[in-house]
Design brief:
Layout (H helix, E strand, L loop, with lengths): L1 E2 L2 E2 L2 E5 L1 H5 L6 E5 L3 E2 L2 E2 L11 H18 L5 H8 L3 H10 L5 H23 L10
Antiparallel strand pairs: 1-6, 2-5, 3-4
Helix pairs in contact: 2-3
Protein backbone atom coordinates (compact mmCIF):
# COMPACT_ATOMS: atom_id res chain seq x y z
CA UNK A 1 0.00 0.00 0.00
CA UNK A 2 1.28 3.46 -0.85
CA UNK A 3 1.07 6.32 1.64
CA UNK A 4 1.52 9.65 -0.10
CA UNK A 5 1.24 12.77 2.05
CA UNK A 6 0.68 15.95 0.07
CA UNK A 7 2.02 19.29 1.13
CA UNK A 8 -0.02 22.10 -0.37
CA UNK A 9 1.86 25.37 -0.12
CA UNK A 10 0.90 28.87 -1.20
CA UNK A 11 3.11 31.80 -1.93
CA UNK A 12 2.36 35.50 -1.78
CA UNK A 13 4.27 37.31 -4.49
CA UNK A 14 4.14 41.00 -5.29
CA UNK A 15 2.59 42.02 -8.56
CA UNK A 16 5.14 44.27 -10.34
CA UNK A 17 2.44 46.47 -11.88
CA UNK A 18 0.91 47.04 -8.45
CA UNK A 19 4.02 48.75 -7.15
CA UNK A 20 3.99 51.48 -9.76
CA UNK A 21 0.38 52.37 -10.37
CA UNK A 22 -2.74 53.13 -8.37
CA UNK A 23 -4.40 49.72 -8.75
CA UNK A 24 -3.05 48.78 -5.28
CA UNK A 25 -2.56 45.20 -6.37
CA UNK A 26 0.41 44.50 -4.15
CA UNK A 27 0.24 40.72 -3.83
CA UNK A 28 -1.34 37.75 -5.49
CA UNK A 29 -1.67 34.27 -4.06
CA UNK A 30 -0.19 31.82 -6.49
CA UNK A 31 -0.07 28.03 -6.07
CA UNK A 32 3.37 26.47 -5.88
CA UNK A 33 4.33 23.06 -7.10
CA UNK A 34 3.65 20.41 -4.51
CA UNK A 35 5.96 17.67 -3.39
CA UNK A 36 4.61 14.18 -3.10
CA UNK A 37 6.46 11.92 -0.69
CA UNK A 38 5.87 8.21 -1.16
CA UNK A 39 6.64 5.56 1.39
CA UNK A 40 6.76 1.90 0.50
CA UNK A 41 5.34 0.20 3.57
CA UNK A 42 3.93 -3.31 3.61
CA UNK A 43 0.14 -3.20 3.82
CA UNK A 44 0.15 -6.03 6.37
CA UNK A 45 1.28 -3.46 8.97
CA UNK A 46 -2.11 -1.78 8.85
CA UNK A 47 -5.44 -3.00 10.16
CA UNK A 48 -8.67 -1.60 11.65
CA UNK A 49 -6.85 -0.41 14.78
CA UNK A 50 -3.92 1.16 12.90
CA UNK A 51 -5.09 2.38 9.51
CA UNK A 52 -2.99 3.62 6.63
CA UNK A 53 -5.06 6.83 6.53
CA UNK A 54 -4.36 7.58 10.20
CA UNK A 55 -0.67 6.84 9.67
CA UNK A 56 -0.58 9.11 6.63
CA UNK A 57 -2.06 11.96 8.68
CA UNK A 58 0.54 11.45 11.42
CA UNK A 59 3.39 11.40 8.90
CA UNK A 60 2.04 14.56 7.26
CA UNK A 61 1.85 16.34 10.63
CA UNK A 62 5.38 15.22 11.47
CA UNK A 63 6.67 16.51 8.12
CA UNK A 64 5.00 19.90 8.54
CA UNK A 65 6.34 20.25 12.11
CA UNK A 66 9.83 19.34 10.92
CA UNK A 67 9.60 21.99 8.19
CA UNK A 68 8.55 24.43 10.89
CA UNK A 69 11.49 23.39 13.11
CA UNK A 70 13.85 23.86 10.14
CA UNK A 71 12.34 27.34 9.67
CA UNK A 72 11.12 26.47 6.17
CA UNK A 73 7.52 27.35 7.12
CA UNK A 74 5.96 30.09 9.18
CA UNK A 75 3.63 29.10 11.97
CA UNK A 76 0.57 30.50 10.20
CA UNK A 77 1.42 28.42 7.11
CA UNK A 78 1.81 25.27 9.22
CA UNK A 79 -1.52 25.92 10.96
CA UNK A 80 -3.23 26.37 7.59
CA UNK A 81 -1.63 23.25 6.10
CA UNK A 82 -2.70 21.13 9.08
CA UNK A 83 -6.13 22.83 9.34
CA UNK A 84 -5.46 23.70 12.99
CA UNK A 85 -6.33 26.64 15.18
CA UNK A 86 -3.34 28.59 16.47
CA UNK A 87 -3.58 27.14 19.99
CA UNK A 88 -3.74 23.58 18.60
CA UNK A 89 -0.58 24.18 16.60
CA UNK A 90 1.18 25.64 19.66
CA UNK A 91 0.29 22.51 21.67
CA UNK A 92 1.69 20.24 18.98
CA UNK A 93 4.80 22.36 18.57
CA UNK A 94 5.49 22.21 22.31
CA UNK A 95 4.97 18.42 22.37
CA UNK A 96 7.52 18.19 19.53
CA UNK A 97 9.99 20.42 21.43
CA UNK A 98 9.54 23.43 19.13
CA UNK A 99 9.34 26.81 20.87
CA UNK A 100 6.46 28.92 19.50
CA UNK A 101 7.37 32.41 18.29
CA UNK A 102 5.64 34.34 21.08
CA UNK A 103 7.40 32.27 23.75
CA UNK A 104 10.71 32.78 21.99
CA UNK A 105 10.11 36.55 22.01
CA UNK A 106 9.12 36.44 25.69
CA UNK A 107 12.37 34.60 26.46
CA UNK A 108 14.44 37.16 24.52
CA UNK A 109 12.59 40.02 26.22
CA UNK A 110 13.30 38.46 29.63
CA UNK A 111 16.99 37.98 28.82
CA UNK A 112 17.24 41.57 27.61
CA UNK A 113 15.56 42.85 30.78
CA UNK A 114 17.98 40.83 32.92
CA UNK A 115 20.97 42.16 30.96
CA UNK A 116 19.77 45.77 31.32
CA UNK A 117 19.18 45.33 35.05
CA UNK A 118 22.64 43.78 35.43
CA UNK A 119 24.23 46.65 33.52
CA UNK A 120 22.41 49.20 35.68
CA UNK A 121 23.53 47.44 38.86
CA UNK A 122 27.17 47.37 37.73
CA UNK A 123 27.34 50.95 36.53
CA UNK A 124 24.87 52.52 38.90
CA UNK A 125 23.20 54.24 35.95
CA UNK A 126 19.49 54.25 35.27
CA UNK A 127 19.55 54.90 31.52
CA UNK A 128 20.49 52.86 28.49
CA UNK A 129 24.16 52.83 27.48
CA UNK A 130 25.20 55.90 25.50
CA UNK A 131 22.07 57.86 26.42
CA UNK A 132 21.61 60.63 28.87
CA UNK A 133 18.66 60.26 31.28
Amino acid sequence: MRVAPRLNLISIRPSPAGFFDDRREYAKILPLQTVEIRLDIPDRLFDDDFTAAAFEARVREFAVLELLRAKRLHEHEAARMLALERWELVERMERAGIVPTEKEFDQIKGELGTAIASMKARTGKSGAPGRKP
